[in-house]
Design goal:
The protein is an all-alpha fold and about 625 residues long. Helices cover about 65% and strands about 0% of the residues. It starts with 8 loop residues before the first helix and ends in an 18-residue tail after the last strand.
Length: about 625
Amino acid sequence: MSENERFSTVDSVVFALSLLMSAGIGVFAAWQSRNHATTSDYYVGSKQMSVIPVSLSLLASFISAIAVVGIPAEIFYYGMEYITYVLSPLLAIPVVCWVFLPVFHRLGDERNITSAYQYLELRFNRYVRLMGTLAFTVMTFLYMAIVLYTPSLALSQVTGISLWLTIVCSGGVCTFYTAIGGMKAVVWTDALQMGFLFLGLLALGIGGLITAGGFANAWEIAVKGGRTQIFNFDPNPIVRYSTWATVVGGSFMTLSLYASNQSMIQRYLSIKKSSHAQIAVLLNIPLKIVLVLLLALCALVMYAHHWDCDPLLAGYVSKSDQIVPYFTLQVLGFIPGATGLFVAACYSGALSTISSGVNSLAAVFLCDFIKTYYDDRHSREMSERKATRISKILAVTFGLITIALALMCQLFSNSVVRLAMSLFGMLGGPLLGVFILGILFPKVNSYGAATGLITSTIVIGFVGICAQFTDHSWQKLAVSIDGCSSANNTTDLYSVSTTSNSSSTEATTLLSTESPDKDFFYFVGSISHFYYSLISSFFCIVVGSITSILTGNNTVIDPVLVFEPLTKCCCWMPPVVKNIDIENDETKINMKPISVEINENCCDSQIEKPMLNGENG
């Protein structure tokens, strides 16, 4: 490795400063809240957060290092068809803003909910709520572990620092500022880290354009390499990045993140006004478009640089997700601090995702398990002081579990890691389906919700398992090593495994051109992962609706729990609750059964909104 391709002392300082700044924000947030530490302050920032930082935090919650190093590599090997995914937020985010968000915000104001899955108990029952919480917990833990492992692996390979030390240090910093600062620390560090992310991608894109001889030259090379096809309207679901998959399937994937995930809903509730929360979400449309286009630019210049010398096939790297850090050292290695900035960008994506996940897990565990059990056993509400203290202990515990799981990732094969990544998408779709049933299908009952959630999880789980045993390597676009000076003989930056199993490595499979036997299991396993949320939510809705019809449908509905325009549609609504006795205490949620007055015939009388204590019916 040449001197210009080293991770220098200046790079290390830049990276360390990014971590210290994040930790400093956590300390400041904790100091600022020292005199009024409540669960409302810890989990939703006392509902006083501003639009811009929350919008950046929403973007940061699921823009991880996996996206930073993975999307350019995907475009490098599969072409520009991926970027049509930027159209999906145009379809999904407005639906979130005007269908889902108002329901959650009303419940945040009137019922003071913190956990998104409290909605599932209010709308269905406690069992559905616990199933939703369990799905979110498994999904989040797996995702956070891989999100922490991925940049740590890259950093250890470009710096020589041991993998376990990078995982422990970065995970420890993230756990520290999340535990002591709560939602305010998470949101403001997310905003800072998104700044690092955009700067790092800009630095890599501009540096790559300079070395490639400008955008026109880079684009011409990509055209010759067959990488510039953007739209592909092939309806075949096994086409990896067809426009149908990225736009239609991608829209449901985006919906599963923004409409049913605790990390997102918690941020909606941190803004006082529903209209301001909608603005924060809508701002994610241009932000997501700019981010994906920047990642595509990095892929374009990376291909222009390596069109005749694929680092993976040549043996310079052992896995495709190492190509981006390898290219970064080549392009930015001669600029002091530039490589450190890009590594900070990768870690920014990781830390923002982990901090969001840790804070959200603490919220759902406190609200869905601990407080529920405590209230039932003691017949009184847990004090705010005790709840806040338990919240911080939970955050530390979940941070340590994430570090442990990230350390375990290196012990498993690549297929297990890919399975965990697939589980993230597979569990998000059924959750979206059950929230759609609750908000848009008022007649669906708890039997339908539970059956739909379980069935859809089994169906998409079968698809995901088939995918792990299906070989897709032959689908990649052509690559070359004709321009490599010493192909397959260099270990300039990354070491390549020399075990007898090397024939199964990712580099070797790129040479495969023979299609495997195509049967039912091959077809199911080859379905594009963009369709996972669509398939699972579809099964949840269909099975849930049929089961509800067979079990007598819902007998009564609270209009606050459904999409408001549906309350005007008499034939779509079951009998409506007219008057609800709601606890209007900031620290309490009344989850116990209450006496209600029922409007027996929706079509014969006007639907009335639930009333708060003190209102006259």
